[in-house]
Amino acid sequence: MAKRIDIKDVDIYYGKFHAVEGVTVSVPPKNVTAFIGPSGCGKSTVLRTLNRMHEVIPGARVEGQVLLDGEDIYGTNVDPVQVRRTIGMVFQQPNPFPTMSIRDNVVAGLKLAGTRDKKKLDEVAERALRGANLWTEVKDRLNKPGSGLSGGQQQRLCIARAIAVQPDVLLMDEPCSALDPISTLAIEDLIGQLKQDYTIVIVTHNMQQAARVSDQTAFFNLAGVGQPGRLIECNDTEKIFSNPEEKATEDYISGRFG
Amino acid sequence: MNNRDVTKSRPGAPVPSGGQGETPMIGAMSNDPPEPPARTLGEAEGAASRRRADLIFRWLATGSGIAVVLSIALIGIFLLIQSVPSLAANKASFLFSAEFLTTDPANLRFGIRDLLAVTVLSSAFALLLAMPVALGIALFLTHYAPAGLRRPLAYVIDVLAAVPSIVYGLWGFLVLGPALVPFAEWLNQSLSWFPLFATGNVSIAGGGTIFTAGIVLAIMILPIITALTRDAFRQTPARHIEGALALGATRWEMIRTTVLPFGRSAYVGASMLGLGRALGETVAVLIILRTSASASGFSLFDGGYTFASKIASAASEFSQPLPTGAYIAAGLVLFVLTFVVNAIGRAIAGEKVRG
Fold it and tell me: Is A175 in CB contact (< 8 Å) with chain B?
């Protein structure tokens, strides 16, 4: 449960393109870390290296270390499938499996891991849905397709699916950017609750959101088009938004560019 | 950008229906001042010629649509009219007789029992072989093959569809048939208790069996099933694939939870289209299958004729209306059969998966 992540001097490439350069960040357990920065600065790319999802794109590779409680997830005999089972991810677009019921969506990860016991699955489904603040809304239609829910409910369903396997870390890639303000608020409240049990890393375009939900904020930027993105500053969220150390950070959060 | 800007940037922009009727509506929506009258006149002229073009195109499109439906209906009616007198003069059971004697117009004895058996058996066998292979190829092409290999491989599969069926027939008759003989004999000897592998009405050593024909048909319908299935698999939304992988699915588990459910209806529909093609295949089957004097025993080691190959084999002798009508009646059954199979295939393949 709730492990810490240490990103050590990570460089990320897509084929010959150097996307991200020399990132070093530590994410403490049971803590929300927000990645902010302008489009194309590599914040989502860094997030996707934390559960080895960037490898899905052909030609993508990583140099450096990502340590999960001291263990390098890029170690030679580490299976990316195992990494993804312990580090959950929620995407920008809610993506429940369209052919599965709400219940089956929630327990999909457990079924993949080999759990077949129906009673256990039902228990986990309820616990995960309660954990995602969705239980009261869907408890009467657990066998209906997940695609029948509203966008915000679908996103909470995806969060339930991610926490059902009790991951060590929860990654969120702009989880609210496709949602309306009320659904966004529901997700933000949920993040506040989830950080009591999970280590959370969230990428967001919305600086107010970063300020509202995170304990620590990392600001990414790039020197110019075609240049690799880099980490400018990482500090307590309060400090980043009140008294940042770098001029670029201040310019960005005060809306002078980006 | 308001409506006025739009009109200004495209001064000649035609108004869909009745230029004058449109202007007040735009004004009402954006509170713009009304358009000057000269502009309205110009647009009205443009609208008239556009409406004429619209009308012509509409009739052309509707006409083509009607022509297709009409020609299918006419073919059906033609088959029906031509076959009814022969069916009335038939002295054997049309559905259950294995005879097909049409030399004496005064004593027509014909039935479709064997034609139907051979047609369905060879096509179903072909489908059974082609479906798993097509699924495997489609999955390989979309998710397993190295990126550089996908294009050439897909191209090779498409080329299979371009080979003329006469070539398939010759290859099946001269190469595949003889090559399969030892395997076919082994199947027959060890599994003859199973009706499909029982000794049939032609010699297995000759190779001219439904077994050979079915394998050739399987190869012939492979491209269409593969191509349609591959296209469907390729359209699986990336966010579902990523969702499965992020949950810790292996590649096969990801395919099972996202790709297969998404492409299933297209796969079944494509298979039905392939079956439709196998049912109607003529030349290859005509060349491969040996004929036999005895009736079909519903074994894969039977010979005989399919509907299509029977009609093709007799086509040179179509001189008298009554004997000809017997073949046309057989053609009518094939027409209905393929029509139904294709309709089912289209219906299933056209079904959209929500996602």
Answer: no
Is residue B22 domain-resident? Answer: yes
In a domain, A148, yes or no: no
B72 and B114 fall within a common domain = no
Domain encompassing residue B345: 100-350
Distances (CA, A) of B183 to B204, B277, B301: 10, 27, 12
Q: Which residue has the higher pLDDT, A257 or B160?
A: B160
- Grouping H, G, I as helix, E, B as strand and the rest as coil, residue B266 is helix
User: Chain A 114-143, CB below 8 Å of chain B: which residues?
Assistant: none
Q: pTM, whole model, 2 decimals?
A: 0.79
Task: Residue window 84-113, chain A: list those with CB within 8 Å of chain B.
Answer: 84-85, 88-89, 91, 93, 95-100, 108-109, 112-113
> A186: which 2 tokens?
């529901």
φ, ψ dihedrals at A166, nearest 5°: 50, 65
ipTM: 0.89
pLDDT in tens, A205-245: 888 899 999 999 999 998 777 788 999 999 999 999 988 88
CB within 8 Å of chain B, chain A residues 49-68: 51, 53, 56, 58
C-alpha B250: how far from chain center: 34
Residues B128 and B240 in one domain: yes
The number of folded domains in chain B is 2
| CATH code of residue A208 | 3.40.50.300
CB neighbours of B15 closer than 8 A, spacing ≥ 6?
A: B22, B23, B43, B47
Q: Is residue A141 part of a domain?
A: no
